[in-house]
Amino acid sequence: MASAAGILLGFAMDRVLGDPRRGHPVAGFGTAAMRLETVTYRDSRAAGLVHEVVLVGAAAGLGIGLRRMNAVRGIRRHHLGPARAGSANHGPTIRTLGEILLTAAATWTVLGGTTLAKTGRAMADRLEAGDVDAARALLPSLCGRDPEALDADGLARAALESIAENTSDATVAPLFWGAIAGVPGLLAYRAINTLDAMVGYRNERYERFGWAAARTDDVANLGPARVSGIITAALAPVVGGRPADAWRAWRRDARKHPSPNAGVAEASMAGALGVTLGGKTEYRHGVEMRPTLGDGPVPRIHDLRRAVRLSEAVQVAAALAAAATAAFLRRR
Known about the structure:
Blueprint: H1 2-17, H2 25-40, H3 45-85, H4 91-110, H5 113-128, H6 132-138, H7 152-199, H8 211-234, H9 243-253, H10 262-273, E1 277-283, E2 286-293, H11 301-331
Antiparallel strand pairs: 1-2
């Protein structure tokens, strides 16, 4: 039960503390990745693959190393404790407690759901106050759209789509891999997702170099995105929606999206909320015409608040499911 307890404790820490304001390990990883890029960058897929393997391998290796250190500490305490202390052996207890704390720390490090929800609510507050300039200044913390090209409704839609996608990427996916692979899975997934956000673009610099990062992220999110879609559909009544509408939007519209995973997250959210997402999407590098997802009106500010509530409900359900899965797998 140590992994399950660690996952739940780490999730609770994210709910209470959110992301650390300074010294965030993910930010440190990003800095290291940028420095390595100055060495590994070539305009080729092979160079991008090397970049991906080195960094993701290092993150997974760190997780494996930390887990082994905890196991070795428990083994030493198991053999040496009674001789030194002349009392009962507490080696297994120390090892279990160490695994709980290690899993909790890794889970807290990789989750971003609480900060995502806070940012979504802050965006809704600014839009409700009519402060479009402040809302535009906040948008880059959610997504890469061009805020200057968006009005209030466009900002609400951009924020809602980002919340839908990142509910899967920032919470469901790391919990999924933490349940399956423990601390190494948590750290490796966050490395994969961070590298995709850094170099997984189809522009002149990263078209080939970022190919490995983008494809690895797609593969890593195939399962989690669908778990997220299932939970989103099931919890649609939390925001006055119908599971059947979310399921229908997913089955009908997700395949239209250029991303095999973001389409699932956004379509199921659109169906649950009863709104239409997609359409003209303006980035700094240009304009994309995205397929429409869901039925109903374009999202407004109150729909953004509903999306935040649904995101938080999905996060709680995903944490409970991950803990149950981890307990089942470790028992077997």
